């Protein structure tokens, strides 16, 4: 059980790390767009989506394991990782829309 608990902690830390990277890149994209650099903003958004995708892949491994009957131990760290993941996904989606709106206001430049 302790070995699995350690594995669950590792998974949680991976989700937190990838989610944090994705959120950071999304906010960097917003900063680039605010400076009028929409090409850089789009590049950063794509990098953000890759990082969030990696977090999703790790989360999916955990979900598949549980669906296959493996017991997932209750862990505040695991809950915290899910919180990071969901807020990073939401931030990315909102920032993407904010950049689109900003681009439209600036005549698509």
TrEMBL record:
Organism: Lactiplantibacillus nangangensis
Entry-linked Pfam families: PTS_IIA (PF02255)
Keywords for the protein's UniProt record, in alphabetical order: Phosphotransferase system, Sugar transport, Transferase, Transport
CDD domains cross-referenced by the UniProt entry: PTS_IIA_lac
The protein, known as: PTS lactose/cellobiose transporter subunit IIA
Keyword Oxidoreductase carried by entry: no
Entry-annotated residues carrying Phosphohistidine: 80
């Amino acid at each position: 059980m302790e070995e699995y608990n350690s594995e669950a902690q590792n998974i949680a830390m991976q989700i937190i790390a990838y989610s944090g990277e994705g959120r950071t890149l999304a906010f960097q994209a917003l900063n680039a767009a605010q400076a009028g650099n929409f090409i850089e903003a789009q590049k950063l958004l794509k990098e953000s989506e890759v990082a969030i995708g990696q977090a999703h892949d790790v989360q999916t491994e955990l979900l598949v394991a549980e669906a296959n009957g493996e017991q997932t131990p209750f862990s505040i760290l695991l809950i915290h990782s899910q919180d990071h993941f969901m807020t990073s996904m939401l931030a990315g989606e909102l920032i993407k829309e904010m950049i689109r709106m900003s681009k439209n206001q600036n005549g698509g430049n």
